[in-house]
Amino acid sequence: MSCDEGAPCYRRRVPEQDRTDPTTRRLLAGSALDVAPWLLGAQLTHATADGTVTVRITEVEAYLGREDPGSHAFRGRTARNATMFGPAGHLYVYFTYGMHYCANIVCGTEGWATGLLLRAGAITEGIELARERRSRPATDLDLARGPARLAQALGLDRTVDGSDALAAPLGLVLPEAAPTVVERGPRVGISGAGGTPEYPWRFWLPGEPTVSRFRPGKQKAARTVDP
């Protein structure tokens, strides 16, 4: 068992025999930077006792484990980020700021600890349930604009961390082809080197009104040394 930052205790799921689409699984097993365009336009569904909500993903951010100073796995494996080191296609859900959950699709092969943060999307099914979960925001464009809002609209929390996104009660369906035009730029709200233009690892569909607004992270001031 594990508990993290005030989130409820949970038991990490152990994947059973894989009966999901092998083509999708193989695609997700690539680099997060290569997989990112394929998630744009993908549909993610979560069925619960309250009902079913589906979101069409319009924005993601790639994180590359030990190669990435912006990644939760940059300094190695912990109880919090263990799912990132697992098989591709599973959900890594983390608790942040003592109040929000954010969801990622794990990519790469086991041990890589790479993945894609689901940053924004548009609700395509279950919009009334999504409105209730989000306390009825002023506009439906805000239902899943931002990673915490997206997770809340879908009903995702740490109890589904480690769950297979390709199997019930979840369902990830990729588009038949990756979009031909994709925008990319620095990631949102990342402090330090990982949030600089050297890491243009945020990907989004151009012209989509649900894409979140860019907000730079606080960069550490350069240290000065007296001569």
From TrEMBL:
Q: Which GO terms are recorded in the biological process aspect for this UniProt protein?
A: base-excision repair
The UniProt similarity line reads:
Belongs to the DNA glycosylase MPG family.
* Keyword set, alphabetical order: DNA damage, DNA repair, Glycosidase, Hydrolase
Record protein name field? Putative 3-methyladenine DNA glycosylase
Pfam families, sorted:
Pur_DNA_glyco
SUPFAM superfamilies noted in UniProt: FMT C-terminal domain-like (SSF50486)
Query: What Enzyme Commission number(s) appear in the record?
Result: 3.2.2.-
GO molecular function terms listed in the Swiss-Prot or TrEMBL record: alkylbase DNA N-glycosylase activity; DNA binding
Organism of origin: Arthrobacter echini
Would I find Kinase among this entry's keywords? no
Source species, domain of life: Bacteria
Keyword ATP-binding found? no
Against InterPro entries, the record matches this protein to: Formyl_transferase-like_C_sf, MPG, MPG_sf
- Annotated signal sequence is none
